[in-house]
Amino acid sequence: MAREILTLVSVVSALLVLLNGLVAEACNTGGGGHGKQQQQQEKEWTPEQLAELERKWGFEWGFGGIGTFAHLKHVKCLTTPNELFDIGIIGAPFDTATSYRPGARFGPRAIRQASARQTSFRGFNHRAGINPYQNWAKIIDCGDIPISPLDNTVALTQMAAAFTELGLRGTVSPLLPKPKLITLGGDHSLALPALRALRQVYGRPLRVLHFDAHLDTWHPDKYPSAWPSNQAHFNHGSMFWLAGNEGLLSNASTSPSVHAGLRTRLSGDGWDDFDDDTKQNWVRLIADDIDDIGTSGIVKTILDSFAFGVDSGEEQAPVYLSIDIDVLDPAFAPGTGTPEPGGWTTRELIRILRGIEGLNIVGADVVEVAPAYQGAGEETALAAAQVVYEILSSMVKKGMQEMGKTVRRHDEL
Ligand SMILES: [Mn+2]
């Protein structure tokens, strides 16, 4: 019996030794791993080592990476107040002020996705003569404003607060007094909070260059309803009427705002909508005008309307550039909220945008991209992404000229 007990004890002892060994080994592995992690955290990386990592792994193919605009650095600017930038891309995924097809809340994502082939390493804009992604400006993707889809009063407040907060932020380049924002929409109503913010940032009413099939200066009552509602006044066809009424737009007859690409049907049985628009100090370029005067004629009319076409000598007034993607024909941009046949081609719009690059654009939006109605080839979002690229090119080029830097021309290369 005693012998059996002894045997049992020795077996148990042997098992304990074995178990102990296993536990120790497990601890060693864990402890070793932890130590390594700590080492790595504490290791000081030299700039050369970091540059080597960047050289090896920093590259992104167009189809790779997280979907920021043009593979730009993403910072959620609204929660990162110390992040400075010169030009910020900001998404406004909001579409509950639309009158026909909803869906533009998915616009910012679609435009970012469609910008995938824009990269800094192949970003030279041969039309403009610069690469906006390899120049003086720090351009980042500021992410999206988290806008309520349930309460438009709150949404309007949120957007105005966000645009103001970002618009008042400092810049990286000392020569740029205020950062510039390009907003990815979202329905067109977002132009109202954008203009409210810019009024505050610049301390003066602005002028608007508005590309659109529609006027968007409609009195809210032009949307017939037996059910009066102040809330309904904030919609994507009345925001410029509201902006004018609030004193956000210049009302001097010598400094009008400009529509380009119009072809909307009008209310009632006549031209009353145009007359109302004229009273609100707008100049109109109709989509058909391009057949008679060409893109260069459209450009000239826009520049003349802004009164600093050729060496006018006067200070360039700040202009807000608002581009509703429905300015393009539905053949080129069917993915939008209120399509109107008979519009401009993507190439014509790009050509016109290049022609007006000298304007003092202080902020811009590209709105009404509703990807659910576009084709699998994402033509609408591609057009919007290209438009953003052209605006970026103009903003950077304008800044270069103000800094006294020369822009290369092809024949000088
Ligand atoms: Mn519009």
TrEMBL record:
Annotated GO MF terms: agmatinase activity; metal ion binding
Pfam family, one: Arginase
Biological processes per GO annotation: putrescine biosynthetic process from arginine, via agmatine
InterPro entries: Ureohydrolase, Ureohydrolase_dom_sf, Ureohydrolase_Mn_BS
Superkingdom of source: Eukaryota
Record keywords: Hydrolase, Metal-binding, Signal
Segment forming the signal sequence: 1-24
Family: Belongs to the arginase family. Agmatinase subfamily.
Protein name, entry field: Ureohydrolase
